[in-house]
Amino acid sequence: MNTRELVNYLQGLAENNNRAWFVMNKPSYDILRAEFTELVGRVIAATAKFDPAVAGQDAKKALFRINRDMRFSKDKSPYKSHFSAIIAPAGKKDPGSHYYFHIDQAGKLLVAGGCYMPPPDVLLKIRRRIAAEPAAFKRMVGNKAMTDYYGGAFSDEAKLARPPKGFDADTPNLEFVKQKSFIMVREMPVKSMTTEKLLAEVQGGFKASLPLVKWLRETVAAPVAGS
Fold it and tell me: pTM to 2 decimals?
């Protein structure tokens, strides 16, 4: 994976986010996309060594499209300025837990593990388990490998200011219950990273998030109380 060429391409795309530029530079895009797909395939194989649930995932299906969904956005730029992929047992539609990484136009590698903005039914199951098993949850998020790599904090994107419906102000772990995403994220410069270094960094981040990923997977798979 030629990270320098990828970042240069993404910088150009960010500065010229239009179809004409994209079409003119399509040969570069195709080469870089193929290299990124190969990297994703290697990441899947490496991840499956400690999380067999993701074994056999299709690297091409794990990649996100470069086209942006502009239907509900004020930003009408047609293309994303990053290459990204998600790895989960059920692929992109997995509702409960996933591994994610991307490389962006700023030359940053982002590595993440957890659950980003789950659907309402999944979100409720996660919140209920956090409140019902406060000590076990605290132990899980305090896992040393995970806190060493990610710093031990969830992304606060869209976090509620007040307790969600059905939860009181004295609910155990209320600050965690207020979350709408349960994902840990780390960013770092990708400059000068060889393919092997990039692979090792992503694999290391995914492995560090394994306690959270497994906890989420178990939570989503558990039957709804009373069913």
Answer: 0.93
